[in-house]
Design the sequence.
């Protein structure tokens, strides 16, 4: 789940109890131990399963509320609670966006999914004290060539960033890999929203930028960090605006937008994708 940088301060939901144990930190960033990582594999696996199932059932004629209800049902069936529901007042269990909608779309029974739509679904699950967080973009039926190419670039950009995840590398290695790949392919990266640390809280330090920046320290990665990496890629301008619902963000030029996200563990010899749909 993307959030404005200023909202990245950890803030668990009232129903979410943190685990009373000593926390290891690196520059204010939580370092997860082996037990905590195993718990995050469980919450990440739930998210991966739900998104994989949604990608299989989403079709024209459904509403975005239909998919939200399905996601909540499945998350709860697997012994978790939806991370997003109630978070800063957000009403859904998923953020769901169509076409030119960029992020934080609210599920609605009045919003029907149509043939040729580009659908973004972002969700999180909270289980045994830890969150998982991931997003996918889904083509509904036969989408046009522009939409296909945008999806391909956005997903590849995510993995270009993930390739930079290993102990000793820095946050801006991730950001630079994403930015360079997107720019080389003629698209734009949305700069107003970032990835983030994830663990006991849905949003933790550090902010994980998708473009190079001097706004925050270029933190060195350390084994045990867990990051939600989530580039948003637009077909046109990088600039966005927020609708009157105060949640849904859209492109200013009405062009298409695509997003992919994984929760990723920094390991001593590389990385592990905790929301990998191939094993979820």
Sequence:
């Amino acid at each position: 789940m993307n959030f404005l940088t200023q909202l990245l301060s950890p803030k668990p939901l009232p129903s979410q109890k943190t685990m009373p144990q000593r926390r290891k930190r690196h520059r204010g960033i939580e370092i997860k131990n082996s037990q905590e990582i195993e718990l995050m594999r469980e919450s990440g696996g739930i998210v991966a399963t739900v998104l994989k199932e949604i990608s299989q059932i989403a079709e024209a004629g459904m509403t975005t509320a239909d998919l939200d209800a399905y996601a909540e049902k499945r998350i709860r069936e697997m012994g978790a609670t939806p991370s997003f529901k109630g978070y800063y007042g957000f009403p859904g269990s998923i953020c769901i966006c169509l076409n030119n909608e960029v992020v934080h779309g609210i599920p609605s029974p009045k919003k029907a999914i149509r043939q040729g739509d580009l659908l973004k679904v972002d969700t999180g699950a909270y289980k045994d004290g830890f969150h998982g967080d991931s997003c996918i973009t889904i083509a509904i039926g036969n989408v046009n060539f522009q939409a296909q190419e945008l999806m391909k670039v956005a997903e590849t950009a995510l993995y270009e960033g993930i390739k930079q995840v290993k102990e000793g590398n820095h946050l801006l290695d991730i950001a630079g890999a994403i930015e360079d790949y997107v720019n080389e392919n003629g698209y734009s990266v949305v700069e107003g929203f970032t990835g983030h640390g994830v663990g006991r809280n849905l949003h933790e330090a550090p902010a994980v930028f998708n473009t190079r920046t001097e706004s925050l320290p270029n933190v060195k990665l350390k084994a045990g960090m867990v990051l939600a990496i989530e580039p948003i890629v637009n077909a046109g301008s990088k600039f966005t605006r927020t609708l009157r619902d105060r949640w849904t963000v859209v492109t200013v030029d009405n062009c298409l937008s695509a997003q992919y996200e994984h929760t990723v563990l920094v390991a001593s010899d590389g990385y592990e994708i905790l929301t990998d749909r191939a094993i979820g």
Observations:
- Helices lie at 34-57, 64-77, 145-162, 171-184.
- Residues 5-22 have pLDDT under 50 and may be disordered.
- The chain is about 25% helix and 25% strand.
